[in-house]
Write a structure and sequence with these properties.
This protein has 191 residues and is mainly β. The protein is built from no helices and 19 strands.
Length: 191
């Protein structure tokens, strides 16, 4: 795959993963945030303003394969995916084990199963998924979510900028003055 991280707290910001392949899991990146030694530390993964395009894994997690867990009772860890774009990753966008997954202001497009994450505490149960202001191939439960063509400039060539006619323009949740590329934003952020 494109990268591997093994740490209690993983933060990726402004990264781009394109056309990577993994023979098992995590085509774009495999993130392992496991706590086996300290009951007071809850593993945390944050991905903000990143792009995952046409990454492939043989088993799961075309874009990202997550293992966010701790061996002690209590909260097992969480993953925050914010202001990020996941397009054309196979066999799915994000897969793995994590008890709590939050999506915000992100796009999951052209993937059969955008999110296949199970609870670390019980792998037979889906993760607690909180999605807000996120566009996905299949509509996700939550506030401000969309399920429609995001209208990229040229998805086939990997230009994932939004056309002016995109339903994602101004449909985000956060009022900011600049977007993830540093361009000025008047009002609400784009998804």
């Amino acid at each position: 795959g494109g990268d591997f991280s093994n740490s209690m707290a993983v933060t990726l910001a402004g990264c781009e993963f394109r056309g990577n392949t993994a023979t098992q899991r995590g085509g774009g990146i495999r993130v392992t945030a496991e706590n086996q030694n300290d009951d007071s530390i809850v593993p945390q993964v944050t991905i903000d303003g990143c792009s995952f395009f046409n990454n492939t894994a043989a088993q799961a997690g075309g874009a990202i394969d997550l293992v966010v867990d701790k061996l002690f009772p209590g909260p097992k860890g969480s993953t925050d995916l914010r202001r990020s774009t996941f397009v054309g990753n196979q066999p799915n966008g994000v897969a793995g084990r994590c008890d709590l997954t939050r999506l915000q202001d992100s796009v999951f497009w052209a993937q059969v199963n955008p999110i296949v994450v199970k609870r670390a505490s019980n792998p037979s149960i889906d993760t607690a998924l909180f999605a807000e202001f996120t566009l996905s191939t299949t509509l996700l439960f939550g506030t401000g979510n969309l399920s429609t063509d995001p209208r990229f400039v040229d998805q086939a060539l990997g230009d994932l900028h939004l056309k002016e006619s995109s339903p994602c323009i101004g449909a985000g949740s956060i009022a900011q003055t600049v977007d993830v590329e540093g361009d000025p934003v008047a009002g609400v952020l784009d998804i």
